[in-house]
Amino acid sequence: MSESGKKFCVEYAKRGAAACKKCKVKIDKGLLRIAKIVPNPFTDGGSEMKEWYHTDCMFESFQRARATTKKIEDAEDLEGFQELEQDDRKKILTKIHQLQESLTMKAKTKTTAKKLPAKRDSEEPIGANVNSLHISEAKRKKLDQNRADIQVSRTDESSKDNSFKEFRKLCAKLYDESAYTAKTAIVRNFFEKGTCGKGFEGDTYLWVKFLLPSVNKRIYNLQSKQLCKLFARVFGGPIYDSMVEDLEQGDVAETVAKFHEEAIKCPPTPKANLSLQQVDRYLERLSRLTREDDQAALLDEIAHSCTVNDLKMIVRLIKHDIRINAGPKHILDALNPAAYEAFHASLDLEEVVRQSLAEGFGSGVVTVGIKICTPVKPMLAEPCRSVDFAFKRFPNGMFAEVKYDGERVQLHKRGNEFFFYSRSLKPVVAHKVNHFREYIPKAFPYCDSLIIDGEILLVNTKTDEILPFGTLGVHKKAQFREAAVCFFVFDCMFYNGKSLLSEPLSKRREILTAYMSVVKHHVQLSEMEGIRSPARLKANIEDAINKGLEGLVLKDPASPYEPGKRHWLKVKKDYLQGGTMADSADLVVLGAYFGTGNKGGIMSIFLMGCYNPSTKRWVTVTKVHGGHDDATLQRLQKELQMKKISKNPNLVPSWMDVKQQLVPDFVTVDPLTSQVWEITGAEFSKAEAHTANGISIRFPRVSRIRNDKSAEDATSLEELIRLFNLSKRQVLKLDDEVGNHITRSNDELLPGETRDGNKFNTSTPEKNKKNARDRFDSAGNESCDKSPKKGKKESISPAKILTSSPSRKANSRTVKNNTEKKITFKKDESSLFTVDSSACTGEDGEKAEGVNRARRRLPECDLPRLFTGIVVETLPTDFRYYQDLSRYFIAYDGKISKKGVTHEIGTKKGTVCIDWIWESIKRRTKVDIDSYIN
């Protein structure tokens, strides 16, 4: 697939050369076209190609495609969608909507579902907006009355529609069906007709809750091995070791069912009699138990009333995975097309089901707002790999905010009650947030109800330095006596009874600025800077990375808060310059772990390490599970020579230095003959769980298998320490090609922006705060015009380092530095790169004057001249990063020429491995060549 992982892309035809795959007619230049990204049958390297279609032809082909064929189900399935013109985006959204409607009707026909009642002409259009206002007041009152009368829960447990056995049957049908639209049709058909076909009489909310066990999770604190331990007590006999061994297949539910069938002490009941309500009560009781004896007693009671299949499904519910491959959208669409969007914004499943029943299947407006104590899905960011991409997404300017490297927290306040939720919407552990109960009332003195979004970090109270990620733990935090946990607030979704989701970001920030008082080192408002030019964004990115921060988050000032949507952009070091800024090391496979789910029963997680010459032992660096496709994983099961030790610390070989919590299921037979893999990550980090001097790799992935290297050639501990130190000193200097368009004049301001350095004031004078509050209270949608005051005390924030450097103004010919000294680009042969003239000549040595003229127009720059004096005849075109490699080699003063060759690149003995050039480029320093000579 493409770099973004999407299977489709959309763009305007560039040359008009490609023909439509369906109608065979060429797609004219500038015409909208859609590509399906498919494997390239003409190569063996797993590369991909694009099959282009006219927009209409693409969607026509979907109409006749099989149910299992991948289709465009959402705009997010299309790479490049956000770069299209508004009218073309609307056109594609209409096509997607029409396709979904058509496929839904086909699926209903196949499952003989009852035809939905036709929509009356007098009905209002369906809306999924949580703040929908487009229905009449009379109808709204009637609608509210209907909703009040609807009973979501029905208490007739004896009804066949409340049978747990019927729930299992429905799950089996959903498992067997691969098409999502057909899954939705199956659920809708059941909720309309019921088990007997005469109408559904079950508890709709309970059914939906069971079909979506990962929503509103009950917490059981029962991992797979603990479940085996408890059920071994329930079933009787010395079966625990056998259960754990069977667990290696990756499915604890299957393991429990297998041993339940053979149990003598607790045999399965011959007939299924459980109701959904009984199972719900069992699970609720189990979620409240913490003592092992109590848990075992309840599981014994449950097992005595279950068939084998009943108990298997109950274990799946405990693990929050019932294996139907259907999420909230597919289940809730069965109730109402508007239900999912309402749920996505509110996460109030019961209210969404209630309103959907009041409206009837397939019609009506579901209006569910956010409320205190129900966490809101956080708005997210997608990777941004260049300055140009950022300005394509936000052409009218953007807000740039420090990407805090802490823990995302959502705070809900209701009177004197406080609720803290993590990024995954779970309650945050008390020791991290309890002290905020003292400081939040001071930070928001005028607030009764509140929902804010932010990040918590540990801050040194003397130096104002932010401490590293991972220091919020109980033991780690105790090591920093002069530190406090600080809440950096960057958004507000709800204030004093009013939802702010639909308000633009600039307005939400104004409200925070007006109503929030900074409590130093405890509650602070993140700083934002208005960005209007590529040069300024480039400077901010360089400053952030070079100061050791994780990166920047870029936001549209006019955007609403969209729960769960990735409509912000995040800029990190490993995203930039084609990934060359990412940290990497060549590590040896030391061990492996069994996978779970569809990777159950095979080695899919690998323990990577390096050699420590001083102790003559192999030390661990990181665990990695990303980067291999399914075919490679299957091949590795045979290629890797492993010995099974089942995480037994007593069986760890003497050559391996590994901590007990990381002991693997398998260890390599001989590390000297094991494979070497290039492991790439966001950055080198500190992790005390690993034995390589505590050095690890954050967000690791396998870039490639190094068949050209042996374990002796892999990165050693000494080299790893050097790479770690070098990474921390590495200076980011982005390419100069960032574009020269200025999206706004210098006199224009972004919404909410002031003229005091383009950033929000995080410490507004009290008089201005009061004026802003008065305006908001009297007219909720007015802008707060906050003028900077002299002598204003700055709030302390890590973002200060971004705004401390002077603003850089640039044009195509001159730049000015802080001392107003004028620098003029020289028109000589100094250039961004060097090109050997012999490589740019035609027949008989005729020079390509166009290249030379272009070279002379380029400005002087301070790119590192790593390869000065180095001449190679050619670079291998089959290298994975060939385009970036050749560009950077020339940019860093290398030459490609047949004359005066100094280094021969290749794989033969005596030649230089191409990795020497690539590693030098990534580290921006010439690495020792001796270890790269074949």
From TrEMBL:
PROSITE patterns: BRCT, DNA_LIGASE_A1, DNA_LIGASE_A2, DNA_LIGASE_A3, ZF_PARP_1, ZF_PARP_2. One of its GO terms (biological process) is cell division. The keyword DNA repair applies. Keywords: ATP-binding, Cell cycle, Cell division, DNA damage, DNA recombination, DNA repair, DNA replication, Ligase, Magnesium, Metal-binding, Nucleotide-binding, Nucleus, Zinc, Zinc-finger. It comes from the Eukaryota. It catalyses: ATP + (deoxyribonucleotide)n-3'-hydroxyl + 5'-phospho-(deoxyribonucleotide)m = (deoxyribonucleotide)n+m + AMP + diphosphate. Residues 802-817 have a biased composition (Polar residues). Residues 478-612 form the ATP-dependent DNA ligase family profile domain. Residues 743-758, 766-788 have a biased composition (Basic and acidic residues). Residues 869-934 form the BRCT domain. Its EC number is 6.5.1.1. Coiled coil: none annotated. InterPro entries: ATP-dep_DNA_ligase, BRCT_dom, BRCT_dom_sf, DNA_ligase_ATP-dep, DNA_ligase_ATP-dep_C, DNA_ligase_ATP-dep_cent, DNA_ligase_ATP-dep_CS, DNA_ligase_ATP-dep_N. Its cofactor is Mg(2+). Residues 8-100 form the PARP-type domain. GO terms for molecular function: ATP binding; DNA binding; DNA ligase (ATP) activity; zinc ion binding. Residues 743-818 are annotated as: Disordered. It is found in: Nucleus. NCBIfam families: dnl1. Belongs to the ATP-dependent DNA ligase family. This is DNA ligase. It comes from Varroa destructor (Honeybee mite).
